[in-house]
Amino acid sequence: MADTYSLHVGTPSVEVYLTLRSGSGLSPKTPEMARAGMPGTWHGVSVLHDDEPVGMGRVIGDGGCFFQIVDICVLPEHQGRGLGKRIMEELVRELERRAPAGATVSLIADGDARFLYEKFGFRLTTPASVGMQRMV
Prior knowledge:
Layout: E1 5-9, H1 14-24, H2 31-37, E2 41-49, E3 52-61, E4 66-74, H3 83-98, E5 104-107, H4 113-118
Parallel strand pairs: 4-5
Antiparallel strand pairs: 1-2, 2-3, 3-4
């Protein structure tokens, strides 16, 4: 990672979380949702550029059987510098270090992001299974 970028381990603040989600084009969340969700972070990282947050990623889960990688994002003006890869490296490293052997790690890949995730061993689950979601 270039000298002007640094990785910070920890759960992002609600403000940072909301700013990075909206700024990077992820679906918006409300402050109430973020306040309820941030404590469920099993492992989180933020990328800082000159001490300003420009990217993040989190792992959520039950701590034993199931984990999900979520909120991988980098602000557009900082994309193309390997920051998403660096975020994934840190999240996967921590999963390999602390998650029990045999735990399931899942994620939802939007568009071409699947090519990044494939570099970390993630594979499509089809046709054996398909991802599904429901919004409330």
